[in-house]
Amino acid sequence: MFHPEYIDPKKLITNDDILKLFQLVEKHGGVLRFVGGAVRDAIAGIDRSDIDLVTDMSPAEFSDMCFDEGLKCVPIGIQFFTTGVIVGDNFFKVTSLSSDDENSKDEWKKDAAKRDLTINAVYADDKGNVFDYYNGIRDLEQGNIKFIGSPQETIEADYIRIMRFFRFCAMFGKNIDSKSLKACIDNKELLHKVSLEKIKEELFKIIMAPYAVTALKLIFENGILDFLIAPPKSIDNLEKLCVLVDKLGISKSVIRRIFVMFEPDAKRAVRLADIFRLTKDQKEHLIELCKVRISLNNFKNIVLIKQLLFKYGREICIDKFLCLNLDTENIDFIKSTLNTLYSEQIPVFPLTGKYLLSLGADSKLLGLYIDSLKKDWYENGCVATRDELVQKYREIF
User: Fold this and answer.
1) Cα(280)–Cα(274) distance, rounded to whole angstroms?
2) CB within 8 A of 376, min separation 6: which ones?
3) pTM, rounded to two decimals
């Protein structure tokens, strides 16, 4: 299916180096097209940085062209007919059509047939013309997530496609193809043969996607990842969190999503951090969320909020507050408290041991002095100044 001028070329041609590569391939009698995510996301109106390119030139022909034009290139995936090329300041991966019949007029359609999902088998040229061989545009518009051709054969070609199916369900899925889903369930044991890192990478993308709840329910209800992760305590909590965050218009957080869905203790948080490939800081943040024991009563006035900010920091307080308000319908209250949490300065205890020593404090009792004064400062709302604390020190000690 050919759609003339379906995409604004500016959505695909993001720099002069890409345009130059298209012009050079055309100059040497070849055809170059965008494929997969770049086209799919351009149609869906999603920003994307990854670019996948396909040419009808063989790897040898493409390499010869690069040599003639003074471009540096290197084979990076011979088994996939992929060549890397540097144009200006950019590096591109270009895959050659792998049709067994070089004289076939349907070599582009045959290339499309080897891809996983219909929505990932749409091509476009540098003019914005779109080539859709398996109704991928229609499926994208309708939210249909389904494999190309036989789901069984598609999965057998690459087992990680099971996870990719659920990832795209999480990204675009409104109507899940039953045959494709059944094939994923029937072949879930094949995931045992896939690199855990690849599975974890897909799982991370799933939990952060717009329809994460839909995809995760399918995964856990059908035991797709039972060998890797135990089912969460409450996917419904995740759904509530997603709705709340959308209403508030604030950024998504993988930490919040994991926390509300699994309600882990600190020990399980360590395991989840590994499964979801969290950074060191994210892991520590998740563990801290598990340890903190506070309720909505701790947010009812500015004095208590200052105490929380001092004790736990801004991010912990914000995440805890949101997780405590999953069933709250008073959005105005939530927004007001969030504004305070975002804008209020984190209190800093204004007195140091060094300063007390300069006033003649006994060094052996310095820890006692500081602990006592800090406790009094904290219990009174973290507002006393250094001079006020010094005055209290003189009165007490």
Assistant:
1) 10
2) 384, 392
3) 0.86
Task: Evaluate whether 119 touches 12 at the Cβ level (below 8 Å).
Answer: no
- Cβ-based neighbours of 307, under 8 Å, separated by 6 or more: 298, 378, 381, 382
- Name the average pLDDT for the chain: 91
Torsion of CA 233, 235, 241, 244, to 10 degrees: -140
CA pair distance 119, 141, nearest whole angstrom:
9
Burial of 314: CB neighbours in 10 Å, binned 0-12, 13-18, 19+: middle
* CA distances, 148 to each of 37, 112, 114, 171 (Å): 16, 9, 8, 18
Tokens 């002095």 map to which residue?
369
Classify the phi-psi angles of 62: left when phi > 0, otherwise alpha if psi is within -120 to 50, otherwise beta: alpha
Is 4 a residue whose pLDDT tops 70? no
> What is the band of 351 on the pLDDT scale with cuts at 50, 70, 90?
very high
Residue for token pair 């170059």: 32
Report d(CA 145, CA 168) in Å as an integer. 7
Q: Are 254 and 206 in contact (CB under 8 A)?
A: no
Looking up tokens 């969290």, which residue turns up? Answer: 278
Express each pLDDT in 186-232 by its tens digit.
999 999 999 999 999 999 999 999 999 999 999 999 999 999 999 99
Give pLDDT, residue 80: 61
Residues 6+ apart with CB under 8 A from 156: 187
Four-residue CA torsion sign, 200, 234, 329, 381: negative
Integer-rounded Cα Rg, in Å, for the chain is 28
Q: What digits encode the pLDDT tens for the residues 308-318?
A: 999 999 999 99
